[in-house]
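Follow-up to my post from last week.
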Amino acid sequence: MATTTPTETSGSPKRDSLLGARVREAGWGYAFVLLPMVIFGIFFIYPLGYAIYISFYEWGILGKAPGTGNVGAENYRTLFDDPIFRRAIRNTIEFTVVVVPLEMALGLLIALVINARIRGRLFFRSAFYFPSLVSSAAITAIAIYILNANGLLNAIIGGNQAWFGDPSTALWSIVGLNAWTTAGTVMLFYLAALQSISTDVYEAAAIDGTSTWRTFWRITFPLLKPAHFFVLVVFGIGALKIFDQSFIVSGGTGGPVYSTYTVVLYIYNEAFKSANFGVAASAGVVMFVAILLLTLIQRATVGRTDIG
Amino acid sequence: MLQTSTSAAADPYLPSRARSAIVGKIVLYGLLTAIALLYFTPFIWTLSTSLKTLPDTANFNFIPHPFTTAAWKSVWTDYDFKRYALNSLFLAVVITTLNLFLAALGGYAFARLRFPGREILFLLVLGTLMIPDQLRLIPVFVMLTNWHLIGNFSGYILISLVSAVNLFFMRQYFLTIPKDFEEAAKLDGAGFFKTFWRVMLPLAAPAIAALAILQFQGTWNDFFWPLILFGQGNEDLYTMQLGLVQFTFTYQTLWPQLMAGSIIAILPILVIFLVFQRFFIAGVTAAGIKG
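User reply:
Got it. Predicted complex:
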């Protein structure tokens, strides 16, 4: 392109300067996006391909294992043959299937209470949202304290259950913890959706003498359908990525007896405890495909936006 | 108002509609109280425990007896929480500054400058949102290891320099600014970078402030990447969250210290939240609607 410019000098000077301005603008445009694009390329887009590549090799802490080539689907076979991975998938799905409806129910309940023009609604909105902003490390440490065998929860309900120490309650305790913290964010989305419902429909219901309970189930709840769907998918994907709480509660072991072992914890332990980077990468690919499918389903069914 | 409703409740001749309104109020405030107890008790209990002595944690009194700040002093100095806090503060400030500068720079170019391939590059940026950290974990770790960027802060800073969400929001914000400002700057003979730096960046201050707060919070709270990139070995590099988890693993039953440490890990976020609540709440809702 640069070579053609001199031959065009016969054109009017005005056209020239216009062309020059265009080229200059484009040059600055590339200069501005260069550094961000390079980093997106190296640390986001390239790793997508590299992860798939690693997943087809026997890969240790020092890279490809010497003397081994492409092992095909071997890592994927190892993965799905591993009872710990299957347990991790089961735990992750059980966690997600229970925690998301709980977050939605609690979030919607709080949103309805706050939307009912209570006194100090701005204060309560902030207060209930706050746990969502607290680090997983701090909130889990507090949960470990409150849920220990001699903790506050047992003192209140009069039990002596070691909530995180018993394989039959450990995962469900993380469910309770995450539902409690995340409901605040869910509440904000429902609140935004509730505020976008026209008051006309409520006035009509009031004139008909419909009870509050019926109004909720017949009018409000169905009108919130886009919000339900949005929250379901977004927080469902978030729940599949559960890691911090499992790691902290179990000291990184996923215990007791694998009861808090999740897929991401499996990726972590395969890589950094067992140095099986190939298997860890293939578990990452499986996770990526699952999340991608969920996202595509969401995009296809509700489009990208409107939660109201 | 409360006065009239209580006296009305005693009136047996009240019409049924007014009575059901009162029942509604009671149910509403009953629910609010239950939710408030559920949400406030853990934090009050945490604060109370952090001001107790270890033997006193066996009792379920909310007022510490005796009252002591020993646990706070002990985690801050004996258990290195001061260093953890400084490390986290350093990382959060550096990453937030660099990340938002690049988000604004890129966002401005994608919003306003015309160059061939702009739409494709922007789609590529949005596409990175589909790539979860859990997939990037292994390749990024391998790459940073090969480049000797593991075991110090540089690798973490490098991978945190850009965020598609921040860049996207900066672009959206620049699109809402009228073009008159840039044209005036151009007439004054300002170049592209000067126009961006002197005119557009100040105009985008509200968006930058909102994203900076969220980015700071995200980096301060981050556990996943610090754990992977410098979570083993050198404790001098530990962030607040790594240090707190390490403490949780090692001294789990030193409850007053553990609770004091947890509050230290929460405190900066609480302060920022109290000052800038509006930004947080607007940011989250906008992210959802645009997402």
